[in-house]
Specification:
The complex is a heterodimer of chains A (320) and B (323).
Chain A: H1 2-30, H2 33-37, H3 44-54, H4 60-72, H5 86-121, H6 126-140, H7 143-157, H8 178-211, H9 214-221, H10 226-255, H11 258-263, H12 269-278, H13 282-310
Helix pairs in contact in A: 1-13, 5-6, 5-8, 5-10, 5-13, 6-8, 7-8, 8-10, 9-10, 10-13, 12-13
Chain B: E1 5-16, E2 19-31, E3 36-40, H1 47-55, E4 63-71, E5 74-75, H2 81-87, E6 92-95, H3 99-102, H4 109-120, H5 125-138, H6 144-147, H7 157-169, E7 175-179, H8 187-204, E8 207-212, H9 215-221, E9 224-229, E10 232-238, H10 239-244, H11 249-256, E11 305-306, E12 311-312
Chain lengths: 320, 323
């Protein structure tokens, strides 16, 4: 377990290192931040001073080395745009993204898992076929379009729900206030739609695979209640792939909810990273991507721990 | 004495391509209390489906189309799902063919045993655990107390089959359907498990339907035998009678294809051809396409000829005993 953790940590370090290199070179290739950040009316002397302040007068390799030096002290550098530490700028936006991702994931699990179970257990019923058709829609309709339709229907036509922003927040969280909760509903549903379909289809496929196994028939031959056969014998076996997907999709919800956050004006990290890329705010981009590497490594580790809880044949011992 | 189980003209069908294929075709047999019936046949002869029909566990879209399954006077073919559930595991238990597949890989042995008890009885957890432990000890599993907390993958195939047998015996059922329970095991383990199984069921007075393709096993185990071919029982009777003087050509062929010591060096007899698939079952006698004695009469369906307890379905039965 410990060796496993250490090994993953080292792997993560390598990925982070490779990524900082790519971002440094990549941003440099896309364009010069100076052209975007500095008022074109400034004269040459003032221009040079700003560049010196940002450290952009140095050659790229020197900028990179000083970035690494700062990193060793836990300093990710200051945002070019905000003039504050990049990490702080990102962390400010974290609660907004986190609660949106969590809300969407909870909806996806609460809706997708039971429906998938139902569709898998009774594949021939009309209701199951409707569910599966619905899941294809959820799968294939583009998120931005569904988001716009939600706004059109629920915010504009019906006027039931707000379409923009987080509303009232308590501390850093908006789900704690009634108004904040109302703001959360539409973006969360929008994000959840695709994930729900994914979990639903995966669960259904899992049910059909497990239900054909001898041990399910044996469980029935023992005279167990159908409820127990489904909720214990079948569910526990099909959760392994489902947990993997839940974990990875949760990561992608946190990291890549750009479209939904933009449409609903949700001030989360996804919106921040897009803005930062537009402005070539390199410190924020680097810090953000590093956070995401750590996030995915952590999530993968949590998924592996879930495996050991679900399946006794899986053991986390440094090998394998 | 009325039989414990009396199956009459059981038909189990699987719909396919717009028609119902009869996997079990008018099968009739009976089992008395404490009696061991050997249900013998090749793969695809319908013997397993017969077993599952008795349990009410035929895989959809298969279903019992007609016939009666009288178990202690009640017709199981008409019983409600809940009545069947309550019967399964408690009065009729089943042991499956492949012990590697019958236990749930993600649940502890103890859980899989006690849940069977909880499904049919209101008993406390400690009591259920104690009974599960005793059942494990009974089938010869060492240090049963610790093994209750083990998972199936920590057991060998033979040990898993012992666990499955222990589960089947938990409620002291009246009838156990054993669906080729030793086919997947080593020969040495096979004979151990058979003799232990025999001893346990004899002590509890449990009737057994032992489904197998292996005549050698049945000859040492069963009181009576029923030979299935193409979904029908072609011959049945007391084990000694059928094995020494089989009347049906198929039974005869089956016995001849068992290797034995006195035929060493000689070419093994075999039944020509393969079992026809359900969709291509010949009209009349199902065996006639592979039978050397078949003639025009065999296009009619043969009735049951002989006495109540010993009969065959053949127009041209062998009269002489096997040499």
């Amino acid at each position: 377990m410990i060796t496993n953790l250490i090994r993953r940590g080292i792997q993560a370090l390598f990925v982070i290192f490779a990524m900082t290199l790519i971002v440094f070179v990549g941003v440099n290739v896309i364009g010069n931040p100076v052209d975007i950040l500095i008022n074109p009316d400034l004269n040459q002397a003032e221009r040079l001073r700003v560049m010196q302040n940002l450290g952009l007068d140095q050659p790229l390799w020197r900028q990179y080395l000083s970035f690494l030096a700062g990193l060793a002290e836990g300093d990710f550098g200051d945002s070019f745009v905000y003039g504050r530490p990049a990490l702080g700028v990102i962390l400010e936006r974290l609660p907004a993204t986190l609660e949106l991702a969590l809300a969407a994931m909870v909806i996806a699990i609460v809706v997708g898992l039971p429906l998938g179970l139902y569709a898998g257990l009774y594949p021939d019923r009309l209701s199951s076929k409707l569910i599966m058709t619905g899941s294809i829609l959820g799968f294939s309709l583009p998120t931005f379009w569904v988001g716009l339709m939600f706004i059109l229907l629920f915010a504009v036509q019906l006027g039931w729900l707000p379409s923009n922003g987080r509303g009232e927040t308590a501390g850093a969280w908006s789900f704690l206030t009634g108004d904040g909760l109302r703001h959360l509903i539409l973006p969360a549903l929008n994000l959840a739609l695709f994930k729900t379909s994914l979990i639903l289809r995966l669960t259904r496929a899992g049910v059909q695979e497990v239900i054909a196994q001898d041990f399910v028939k044996f469980a029935r031959a023992k005279g167990l209640l159908e409820r127990r056969v489904v909720l214990v014998h079948i569910l526990k076996n099909l959760m392994i792939p489902v947990v993997t997907i839940i974990g990875l999709e949760f990561g992608s919800l946190i990291a890549f909810s750009v479209v939904t956050e933009s449409i609903f004006g949700w001030p989360g990290m996804g919106k921040l990273i897009i803005d930062s890329i537009n402005l070539l705010d390199r410190p924020v981009i680097v810090a953000y991507l590093m956070m995401m590497v750590v996030l995915f490594v952590t999530l993968n580790f949590v998924i592996d721990i879930c495996y050991t809880l679900l399946d006794p044949r899986v053991r986390l011992d440094g090998k394998g | 004495m009325t039989a414990l189980l009396d199956v009459r003209d059981l038909v189990t069908v699987f719909p396919s391509g717009g028609r119902d294929l009869r996997a079990v075709d008018e099968v009739s047999f009976s089992v008395n209390r404490g009696e061991v019936l050997g249900l013998v046949g090749e793969s695809g002869s319908g013997k397993s489906v017969t077993g599952f029909s008795l349990m009410g566990l035929v895989d959809a879209p298969g279903r019992i189309a007609s016939g009666q399954i009288l178990f202690d006077g009640d017709d199981l073919a008409k019983a409600s799902p809940e009545a069947m559930r309550s019967l399964r595991g408690r009065r009729i238990a089943m042991v499956f063919q492949d012990p590697m597949m019958t236990l749930n890989p993600v649940l502890r042995i103890g859980t899989q045993m006690t849940e069977t008890l909880h499904a049919h009885e209101r008993i406390g957890k400690p009591e259920a655990r104690a009974r599960a432990r005793d059942a494990l000890a009974q089938v010869g599993i060492p240090s049963p107390e610790e093994r209750l907390d083990a998972y199936p993958h920590e057991f060998s195939g033979g040990m898993r089959q012992r666990v499955a047998i222990a589960i089947a015996l938990l409620h002291r059922p009246d009838l156990i359907i054993a669906d080729e329970p030793t086919t997947a095991l080593d020969v040495t383990i096979q004979s151990q498990i058979i003799s232990e199984f025999q001893a346990l069921t004899e002590r509890q007075g449990t009737a057994v339907i032992w489904i197998t393709h292996d005549l050698a096993i049945v000859s040492g185990l069963a009181d009576r035998i029923a030979v299935m071919y193409g979904g029908r029982i072609v011959e049945t009777g007391p084990i000694a009678e059928v094995l020494t003087a089989p009347k049906h050509p198929y039974t005869r062929g089956l016995i001849r294809s068992v290797p034995s010591e006195n035929s060493r060096g000689a070419r093994l007899a075999q039944i020509p051809g393969v079992t026809p698939s359900l969709a291509h079952m010949p009209q009349g006698c199902a065996f006639r396409s592979r039978c050397q004695r078949a003639d025009a009469a065999c296009a009619q369906r043969p009735g049951a000829y002989g006495s109540d307890s010993c009969w065959h379905r053949c127009f041209h039965p062998h009269e002489e005993a096997l040499t």
